[in-house]
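Support request from a user on the community tier.

User writes: "When I paste my structure tokens into the form, the page sometimes reloads and wipes my input. The last time it worked, I copied everything first. Here is what I submitted, just in case something in the input itself triggers the reload:"
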């Protein structure tokens, strides 16, 4: 029988959260989005009710959990810029770690049963192997990764002490946009490679740099496992089914299991866009591991998750289409109206 109780989605107006909210709507779920709109957009919430507020606001969260009889929380709300986490660590520990603690306390008090957490491959730091499974040692090299790992630990400990069960999804490099063109990454001053390259291809920036060409990889540039946001969003819905079906708490990598170099990504953006990009070669960026790819066997096995868009050209095509559309929509320009 279809579950009709509402789910709470923190950060549901953000890049990944908004794609999940759209899919939850398609699946007929009742959704309450909690987002402070600091980096999210009202326009990105295509389904459900939007409540503007902070995840760490316990009075607000308690009220929402009770009012809507929430049994399940999907927790996306977080700051995600790695260099910023280095220069302003307390911002990350407050917003990512302390807010998660507050949210979990409210969940425990209200008897929330299922929790899906947005974690990150940044918990692995610079791993010994480049093909990483979930049992690899966690050793983050920046406050962002640490802030997320501490949240994983709180979840683990709370689950051991209560009836709450959780899925922590460790995202690798999320990219692309809604294949239907309604959603995508809209945050200004983006730093992620595919977004930056698509901005360059659509004339929003003059060019871009390759950070490091002397890595021990076939073409000297870093390799990452790029996962389409639509596939990642679907993993959340399957995680929800898994928990509602009685599944045990688990940590799962989200990636395709193979990677592309920075040069391969830029070649693809140039080919798909038909534009030649102004690319300069720069020094290595601090804290970049040479190669990171997900061993994704566990998520495929446990959730039955199968990627639909394991195709770099498709990822880039949707990201480019979104970038063109965003230029017209101008969500950031309308932000003062929120
Ligand atoms: N890169 C460039 N030029 C740019 C931007 C990026 O050469 O203008 C390179 C980076 O040096 C890196 C690769 O492209 O080698 C990917 O960089 P991103 O910034 O797109 O992504 P990261 O791999 O650094 O980090 C992302 C998320 C993190 C997450 C991590 C996990 O930002 O939150 O993936 O793999 F933890």
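"...and here is what came back when it finally went through:"
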């Amino acid at each position: 029988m279809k579950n009709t109780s509402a789910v709470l989605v923190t950060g549901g107006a953000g890049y990944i959260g908004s794609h999940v909210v759209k899919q939850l709507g398609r699946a007929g779920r009742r959704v309450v989005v909690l987002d402070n709109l600091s980096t999210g957009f009202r326009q990105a919430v295509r389904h459900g009710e939007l409540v503007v507020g902070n995840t760490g606001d316990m009075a607000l969260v308690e009220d929402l959990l009770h009012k809507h009889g929430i049994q399940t929380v999907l927790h996306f709300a977080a700051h995600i810029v790695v260099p910023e986490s280095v220069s302003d660590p307390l911002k990350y520990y407050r917003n990512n770690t302390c807010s998660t603690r507050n949210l979990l306390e409210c969940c425990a008090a209200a008897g929330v049963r299922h929790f899906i957490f947005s974690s990150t491959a940044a918990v692995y730091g610079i791993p010994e192997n480049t093909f990483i499974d979930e049992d690899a040692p966690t050793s983050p090299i920046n406050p962002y990764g640490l802030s997320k790992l501490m949240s994983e630990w709180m979840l683990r400990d709370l689950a051991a002490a209560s009836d709450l069960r959780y899925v922590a999804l460790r995202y690798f490099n999320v990219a692309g946009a809604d294949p239907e063109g309604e959603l995508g990454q809209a945050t200004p001053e983006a730093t992620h490679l595919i977004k930056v390259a698509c901005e360059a291809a659509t004339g929003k920036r003059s060019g871009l740099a390759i950070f490091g060409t002397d890595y021990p990889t076939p073409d000297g540039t870093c390799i990452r496992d790029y996962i389409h946001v639509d596939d990642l969003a679907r993993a959340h819905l399957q995680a929800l089914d898994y928990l509602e079906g009685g599944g045990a708490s688990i940590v799962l990598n989200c990636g395709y299991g193979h990677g592309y170099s920075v040069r391969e990504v830029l070649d693809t953006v140039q080919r798909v866009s038909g534009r030649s990009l102004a690319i300069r070669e720069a020094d290595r960026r601090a804290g970049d591991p040479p190669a990171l790819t997900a061993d994704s066997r566990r998520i495929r096995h446990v959730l039955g998750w199968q990627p639909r868009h394991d195709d770099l050209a498709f990822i880039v095509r949707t990201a480019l289409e979104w970038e063109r559309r965003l230029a017209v929509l101008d969500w950031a320009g309308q932000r003062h109206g929120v």
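Agent notes: The reload is a front-end session timeout and is unrelated to the input. The chain has a mean pLDDT of 95. The first helix runs from residue 15 to 26. Escalated to web team.
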